[in-house]
Design a protein that fits this description.
By secondary structure, the protein is an alpha+beta fold. It has twelve helices and five strands. The chain folds into two domains: about 170 residues, Transcription factor LuxR-like, autoinducer-binding domain (Beta-Lactamase, 2-Layer Sandwich), CATH 3.30.450; about 60 residues, Arc Repressor Mutant, subunit A, CATH 1.10.10.10. Helix content is about 50%, strand content about 10%. The radius of gyration is 20 Å and the shape is globular.
């Protein structure tokens, strides 16, 4: 990106490509993929911060085993995080760059940098909120890089993109416009099996986890397929994700994110 017109054009093109997604889950999925591509970020995430209880939940892309440790550590020192301090202390909730909130030399001597950012390869960071901190919670996309900071043009790209993403997120979050397909009611056992599917377990492995017989698991799977109108594990996981039944961290790192299910069938 070079120049204000190119930045505005790139933001508009991405916004237009996202305009037709049917669900909040699909919007988040597509946006994470596009931010990683456009901003050359090897680590992107969606983070939800409760500004009252001072706790955070993060869904990384890609998700690696060590990320759960990083999330726990973030919660321990959230009130020291420059991004948390910034958004909880004033009215501005536009996209920000970490290096604009704290000098790099000062950041490098913090526990946050040494124990979390270096560990996940996120020494450089930008955040793009989807809702105002005044609501009591902050939901934001986060893009990271280890090798170099983000440029002024890249930050401006996020700021140009933000209004469109906020509008799409709000529209899709409204029950009346989210999707014409209502999320079917799964039993507690069926919900557990869907999560096991998402984590990559086979029917036999799920049976050992519950515990029950593999035949019982397969019977539950047939019921789940019927309720979700799917026919195999992959489409079941995608449908459950897009209907909000699964969070990103529930999904196996082996999962193929490019697969889509037509929710309007």
């Amino acid at each position: 990106m070079d120049g204000q017109s190119d930045i505005a054009c790139a933001a508009l093109m991405l916004a237009e490509s996202l305009a037709g997604v049917p669900t909040v889950g699909a919007l988040i999925d597509r946006t994470l993929n596009e931010l990683a591509r456009v901003l050359e970020s090897p680590l992107v995430s969606l983070t939800e911060i409760d500004l009252v209880s001072k706790t955070a939940a993060t869904s990384f892309r890609p998700y690696l085993p060590g990320h759960s440790v990083a999330v726990d550590a973030v919660n321990e020192m959230l009130d020291q995080h420059p991004v948390f301090i910034w958004y909880s202390s004033q009215q501005d909730w536009s996209a920000v760059r970490l290096s604009d909130l704290i000098p790099t030399a000062e950041l490098r001597i913090t526990r946050l940098y040494q124990e979390i950012l270096v560990a996940v390869g996120g020494q450089h960071m930008m955040t793009l909120p989807l809702c105002a901190p005044q609501t009591g919670r902050l939901i934001c996309f986060v893009v990271n890089r280890a090798d170099r900071d983000f440029s002024d043009d890249e930050l401006e790209f996020l700021r140009r993109l933000q209004p469109a993403l906020v509008t799409l997120y709000r529209r899709l979050s409204m029950p009346a416009t989210r999707t014409s397909v209502a999320a079917p009611a799964l039993t507690r056992r069926e919900q557990a099996i869907v999560k096991f599917l998402a984590s990559g377990l086979t029917a036999d492995a799920i049976a050992r986890q519950l515990p029950c017989s593999p035949a019982t698991v397969r019977k539950h799977l047939q019921n789940i397929y019927g309720k979700l109108q799917t026919h195999d594990r992959l489409t079941t996981v995608v449908r459950a994700r897009d209907l909000g039944m699964l969070r990103d961290e529930d999904l196996s790192t082996e999962f193929e994110w490019s697969v889509r299910v037509n929710l309007h069938q």
